[in-house]
Structures are given as C-alpha cells and as structure tokens.
Amino acid sequence: MSNSPQINPNDQEIDLGKLSKKVGEKVQSFIDWLFDGVLFIRRNIVIIGILFVLGVGLGIYKDKNTKVYDHEVIVKPNFGSTDYLYSKIKLISSKINEGDTVFLKQIGIVNPKKFSKIKIEPITDVYRFINGNDKNFEMLKLMAEDGDLTKIVEDNVTSKNYMYHTISFTTSGLTSEKNTLIPLLNYLNDSEFYQKMQKEQVNNITLKIKENDSIISQINAVMNQFSNAVSNNQKSDKLVYYNENTQLDDVLKTKEELVKEQGYNRLELVSADKIIKESSHILNVRNNKATKGKMKLILPVFFIGLFAMLGMLRDLYRRQLAKRNLI
C-alpha cells in the first residue's frame, strides 16, 4: 500500500479560485486608482491648469536668470602632499553636500550658499612622469607587463604621482579670486606639518645650490689653470703631450651635470614657496548645461505633484475620520 499523501482535486480548485480572486481584486484596485486619478483631474482641472502655467512661467524665468559658472585651478602639490590635497578637497565636497555653510565661511569662502560642488583630478602626463626619472620609467614598465598600460596610467594610485592636478568647482553666479580662489588656496596651504617640511626642503635646496656653485667655481678654476698652461706652452714653441689620465672629460661631464642640477634646483625654489602651488586658473566660465531648459519642466511637475499629494492626504484624512464615526 502506498503511503504518499492523496491530493484532493477540490483543494486545487479552491486554491486556484482564491488566487484568481486575489488577482482580480488587485486589477480592480488598480483600475479604481486610475479612475480616481481621472476624477481628481476632472474636479481640479482649473487649479491644475493654473499650477501648470505658473510652473512653466516661473521655470522660464529661473532658466533665464539662474547662471551657473565653472572654475578651474591647476595646482602642484609639493613635499609629498598629494594625498593631503585630495583629502582636503574630499572634506570640502562633503561639507558642500551636507549644506555646512558655517564650515565654508570659516575657511573664508564668501557667499558659501552659491558654492555648489568641488572635485579634483590629476592631469595625466606620462612623459613628464618618466622624463629624467629612471625609477618611474622602470616602475611603469614593470607594471605594464602585468596589465593594460592605459588602465595603469589612469589608475588612481599612479595618477596621484603626476605633477599637476586640476581643482574644479562650481558656483551659482559670478565669483572672484578674492571671494573664492584665494580663501580656498589659503585653506589648502594651512598645514603645520607641511609648513615644517617646506622649511626644511627650501633649506636643503638652498644649501645644495650653494655647494654646487662652489664646486662649479672650483672646476672653472682648474680648467682656467689648464687653459693657461696650454697657452703658455704654445707660446714657448714646446710640444705638449696630453695624458689620457688627466680625466678632463669626466670633469667636464661633472660640470655639465651640476649645471643641469642647478637649473632644476632653482626651478624647484620657484614653486617651493607654497605647499599647494597654483600654476594657473580660469574663473567664471558659463555652464549652459547645468540648468538650461530644466526648470520649466521641473517646476510644473513639482507644483502639480505637490497639489496631488495634498489631495491624497486630505482624502486619507477623511476616510480615517469616517472609520471612527467622527463625521
């Protein structure tokens, strides 16, 4: 005898009947909801029309008068301060998203409510990254063996090692260096740790320049003595023999390297006066994509949606009162 449970066909018919009934109820509820919406529009067609016209008119006005401007500043983080720079920009961005105008005022931003967003991106420059730096070239070459070179170049870790970075921010309305850019750069340069690093680095570069100048002067003196000796021997009609061990070629190469290094050191001093050194900036570039044509679509939908929501809340309130026999 089989012990498997017996399925009653009547139970299946009951289950299917319940399911069919529930589906029918859901469909009917949806139809009723649509019909209620049509009745709501019909009852309030005048108010909805007024709200639509008002929204379109106000939207057109806002589109014409709301002016958004983009601004960019190219900076060079010195003394290994790239991660510090990115963390500072991230902090400012989070404060903007939170609407923390008090913080923005504290760092010196004038009209912080108009300061809408900020971001930072590296300027990809592989040639400058590897130029004259064998370590960077070998590192990039090694990393390229295990992956796509394009992805590696644009990778977040690699890109932070590039020399220049672009800080972009947006304001609603015109701004100026005094109101926005200078306070922003002053805030980025306000770091006790990196100020100490800056002081030591400048001292090191200055000392290196002084020592290199001394070595170059000594090389020049040696070369002058040699030149004078050759000149005197030629005047005395005596033969001059040059020994391969004089190492004059190495001395000249050493001087050449020192001169190159001196040029590099003096360029480093130019940018070492700031932790985050500004290279160039562009302010008040009109952004026509930010709000162009959007407000005349957004405002009518917003006004009508708000009116419909208030109507739904009113009907819900009345139904709850009716359930409690309060009306």
Please describe what this structure looks like.
This protein has helices spanning about 10-45, 45-65, 80-100, 100-105, 125-130, 135-145, 150-155, 155-160, 175-190, 190-235, 250-270, 295-325, and strands at about 70-75, 115-120, 165-170, 275-285. It is about 65% helix and about 10% strand. Strands 2-3-1-4 form a 4-stranded antiparallel β-sheet, with helices on one face. The two termini are about 65 Å apart. The longest helix has about 45 residues, at about 190-235. The chain has 12 helices and 4 strands. The radius of gyration is 38 Å and the shape is elongated. The protein is α+β, with helices and mostly antiparallel strands and about 325 residues long. It folds into 3 domains: about 20-65 and about 295-325, no CATH class; about 65-125 and about 165-190 and about 275-285, Alpha-Beta Plaits; about 200-225 and about 245-270.
Q: What's this, in brief?
A:
The protein has 327 residues and is α+β, with helices and mostly antiparallel strands. The chain is built from twelve helices and four strands, in the order ααβααβααααβαααβα.
Secondary structure layout:
Layout: H1 9-43, H2 45-65, E1 68-77, H3 82-98, H4 101-106, E2 115-122, H5 126-130, H6 134-144, H7 149-154, H8 156-159, E3 165-172, H9 177-188, H10 192-235, H11 248-271, E4 276-287, H12 295-323
Helix pairs in contact: 2-12, 10-11
